Amino acid sequence: MVSSAFSINTGGMGERLKDCTAIITGGARGQGAAEARRFVEEGAFVVIADVLDSEGRTLAEELGHSATFHHLDVTDEENWSAIVSGLVDQGRSIDILVNNAGILLFDRLTRSSREDFERIMEVNCTGVFLGMQAVADEMKKQQSGSIVNISSVAGLQGVGFQFSYSVSKWAVRGMTKSAAHELARHNIRVNSVHPGLIETAMLDQFPENLQPRVESVVPMGRSAEAAEVAELVLWLASQESSYCTGSEFVVDGGLSVG
Ligand SMILES: NC(=O)c1ccc[n+]([C@@H]2O[C@H](COP(=O)([O-])OP(=O)(O)OC[C@H]3O[C@@H](n4cnc5c(N)ncnc54)[C@H](O)[C@@H]3O)[C@@H](O)[C@H]2O)c1
Questions:
Q1: What pLDDT is attached to residue 258?
Q2: Is residue 32 lining ligand 1, measured as CB closer than 6 Å?
Q3: Domains of the chain (ranges plus CATH)?
Q4: Is the CB of 255 inside a 6 Å radius of any atom of ligand 1?
């Protein structure tokens, strides 16, 4: 696979998320961790929320006072309530939610089990629903908020060998639009991000026979670093995208152009 020979010069510390509190699900590693690092660089306080306690705590320690780790299984409503009430008790606003946690499965319609289908939907889809529901009341009280839901290029097109995953990511795209419609009058924006091939543990899950031939399937000829997705998520989380809601934002090196 051709990986990214790319380095981002973010310019270091900034104030694009000054005084903002962000919850990032699946924040312990991969894209979520890249977003946590970037958000902290721009002045945010970040709640790294994940089932990976050890990795999450290590990252929070690295980021110092600007981050904390909270155990969260996105499918667990009590976990969600604990995070939200904890932030409210600390007198913090909830300005940004990045619903980034996700799991991948390789299956086909005709060779998938109900259990596998429901597990993917539970994490990738119900988890996003519960997350948006958990923060919506606080964001309504504040009359502001930005929710970024991480879908995939699999939420823009059909993927035969990722049947359940693709269904779940289309659902994220649909939920994003419905939630954006409902919450816009409260000044809460909701957008979806559609990454292509990003160099994280998830990409390592591809079995040998399904390894994407990056040079031929991606017009830009390479996969991306998690940091490249983080730049887009940062922009959507910040006020720089103040008039964007209910939209799809693709970061895939051209993979989905056909
Ligand atoms: N890597 C890619 O090529 C790619 C492409 C398109 C979309 N995505 C999406 O990007 C998002 C981030 O994935 P990644 O690439 O960083 O992979 P990753 O596997 O490194 O990260 C996924 C994170 O989600 C967490 N997670 C899984 N189940 C959870 C649960 N029930 N509750 C809380 N956290 C949970 C994991 O512990 C992990 O930290 C996912 O939604 C994924 O579907 C990834």
A1: 82
A2: yes
A3: 21-253 (3.40.50.720)
A4: no
